Amino acid sequence: MTSTSFLDLSDGRTIAYRFTPGTGPVIVFLPGYMSDMNGSKAAAVFEMARASGLPCLLFDYSGCGESPGYFGEGTLTRWTQEVLALVGALEMPDEKVVLVGSSMGGWVMLLAGLALGDRLAGLVGIAAAPDFTDWGIAQMDKAMLADGETIFEDNPYGPEPTPTHPGFWADGQANLLLEGPIAIDAPVRLLHGQRDEDVPFDISLQLAERLRSADVQVTLIKDGDHRLSRDGDIQLLLRTVAQLVLPRAAQVPSES
């Protein structure tokens, strides 16, 4: 794996990232909530890009992974700013960008994609979770967050409970997207497991309806869970990304 570099932002934030140069649209992987660039899906996309001569960017949101800061200060707006700052700071021969967003990263993917405009070459969502501060949080918990309290939920992926901080929740409510059309015209591919217990697969179907793009495809994995990190899931992800960035002759083959 490429060594970690750091980008200093003007407000004092420092963002850890890994970048492999190449030719063609840059692939940017956006992790999920409390996740980082060391995950299996991010690593697989990075290695596929490097082997194919494509530029690829991995990074950690501020307060996550190798990026310093306090996680409780993180918001969708801040983390989207960090995506755009990294894309703007790196030298890329082709200015087109393909964003790959996992879970909450799928929400950041949409916000960053809207900001990129004509630079956006495509989106790939993995159990994308736009608006989860609205549909994914009980009304009683919303009232606590509105009063400035942090809520904690059981974490199926680790021993520590998952916090939702009031600042993150309020910012999410200010960035809801599923209530109206989403002005993105680039190709979009959405992958979602039908056994996802965290993000209902109906969210990807709603998202497909809201996107303005005519080139939107939803792939449902009947036995897939939220993470979609099995070998077959990752191969599907790599083929999906390759279809957006590689000539047909160079695309990742299916497993035999």
From TrEMBL:
A Gene Ontology molecular function term of the record: mycophenolic acid acyl-glucuronide esterase activity
First-level EC class: hydrolase
The protein's Enzyme Commission number: 3.1.1.93, 3.1.2.22
AB hydrolase-1 domain: residues covered: 27-227
Key words, A-Z: Hydrolase, Transit peptide
InterPro entries: AB_hydrolase_1, AB_hydrolase_fold, ABHD10_acyl-thioesterase
Catalytic activity entry: mycophenolic acid O-acyl-beta-D-glucuronide + H2O = mycophenolate + D-glucuronate + H(+); S-hexadecanoyl-L-cysteinyl-[protein] + H2O = L-cysteinyl-[protein] + hexadecanoate + H(+)
Pfam families cross-referenced by the UniProt entry: Abhydrolase_6
SUPFAM superfamilies: alpha/beta-Hydrolases
Described purpose of this protein according to its UniProt entry: Acts as an acyl-protein thioesterase that hydrolyzes fatty acids from acylated residues in proteins. Regulates the mitochondrial S-depalmitoylation of the nucleophilic active site residue of peroxiredoxin-5/PRDX5, a key antioxidant protein, therefore modulating mitochondrial antioxidant ability. Also catalyzes the deglucuronidation of mycophenolic acid acyl-glucuronide, an active metabolite of the immunosuppressant drug mycophenolate.
Protein name per its UniProtKB record: Palmitoyl-protein thioesterase ABHD10, mitochondrial
Organism: Novosphingobium barchaimii LL02
